[in-house]
């Protein structure tokens, strides 16, 4: 979906494939494989110039994988790194009970009664091992190929804490992916942090204000729209979680529109505000079909499900590329 500024008589020329483009990658568990597909297809375009990446939760994992891959081997390296990390995540499903009948409901009930401090006292998280084996965080901090904005939620205040590329550690990424019903809070400098999706999913305004991007592409792991109102309790809670996780993004996009509108109405704006006024903003959203029961759970990353998500992301990116060529 593209936002066409209401205060311009004509939209600016497409900048997604013709200038510095910032990427905002939303979180959403295994559905992050959809963003993998989008990135994989965009990286095939030589004119695509990622200028900065922000992410929360699974979006943070994709952002770091993209940056590390670019540092290691350019576009081909980024595609290879993203494929490797999602392949490794898919292998985890072989050890997960979530695919068993009724397992998701049992897990939901368990997490309402027991905390991860009780059912996972050793705080085991296989994602940590995958990331530690894939990314050299010290080297990435020293030579990041593009700006990174990784969101976490500071538990005592509920505020967003955004970590930049020079601050990136394995603990930062684990904090950004820390779902509090599943994993213990991640301690950094004596402070506890949870999943960044609660407070910025993903952070948009800091990225577009601090970089010289001419376009913004947000990859959403929540559908733009879903049919009707759910009536079964599990479906109600599932829909409510998606609405709540999408709310921070909607607030930031609304604020970005307001800033652009104010810049347009204020006569001759300074260069930074003029850039925001002219910023091309597009979103690519996952389809609602992936939230129907037969399609699988965001907590159960089966390889078949990840492949469907990957192909759906590539197809959605192809549609965008085709629209830019028109």
TrEMBL record:
Keyword Lipoprotein assigned: no
Entry protein name: Patatin-like phospholipase
Organism of derivation: mine drainage metagenome
Any one Gene Ontology BP term: lipid catabolic process
PNPLA domain sequence ranges: 23-208
Family annotation (Pfam families): Patatin (PF01734)
GO molecular function: hydrolase activity
Keyword Hydrolase: yes
Family matches, as SUPFAM superfamilies: FabD/lysophospholipase-like
Taxonomy of the source species: unclassified sequences, metagenomes, ecological metagenomes
Alphabetized UniProt keyword annotations: Hydrolase, Lipid degradation, Lipid metabolism
């Amino acid at each position: 979906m593209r936002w066409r500024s209401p205060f311009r008589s004509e939209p600016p020329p497409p900048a997604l494939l013709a200038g510095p483009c910032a990427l905002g990658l939303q979180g959403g568990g295994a559905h992050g494989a959809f963003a993998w597909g989008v990135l994989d297809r965009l990286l095939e375009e030589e004119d695509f110039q990622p200028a900065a990446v922000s992410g929360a939760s699974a979006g943070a994992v994709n952002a770091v994988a993209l940056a590390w891959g670019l540092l290691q081997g350019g576009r081909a390296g980024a595609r290879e790194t993203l494929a490797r990390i999602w392949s490794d995540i898919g292998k985890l499903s072989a050890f997960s009970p979530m695919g068993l009948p009724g397992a998701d409901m049992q897990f939901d009930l368990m997490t309402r009664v027991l905390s991860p401090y009780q059912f996972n006292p050793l705080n085991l998280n296989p994602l940590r091992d995958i990331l530690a084996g894939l990314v050299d965080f010290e080297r990435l901090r020293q030579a990041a190929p593009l700006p990174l904005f990784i969101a976490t939620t500071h538990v005592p205040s509920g505020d967003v804490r955004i970590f930049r590329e020079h601050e990136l550690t394995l603990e930062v990424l684990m904090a950004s992916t820390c779902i509090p019903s599943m994993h213990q809070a991640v301690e950094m400098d004596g402070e506890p942090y949870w999943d960044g999706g609660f407070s910025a999913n993903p952070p948009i305004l800091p990225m577009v204000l601090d970089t010289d991007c001419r376009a913004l592409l947000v990859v959403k792991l929540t559908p733009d729209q879903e049919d009707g109102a759910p009536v079964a309790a599990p479906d109600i809670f599932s829909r409510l979680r998606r609405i709540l996780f999408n709310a921070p993004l909607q607030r930031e996009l609304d604020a970005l529109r307001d800033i652009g509108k104010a810049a347009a109405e204020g006569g001759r704006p300074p260069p930074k505000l003029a850039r925001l006024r002219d910023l091309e903003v597009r979103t690519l959203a996952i389809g609602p079909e992936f939230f129907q029961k037969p399609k699988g759970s965001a907590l159960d990353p089966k390889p078949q499900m990840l492949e469907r998500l990957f192909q759906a992301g590539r197809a959605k990116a192809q549609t965008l590329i085709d629209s830019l060529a028109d």
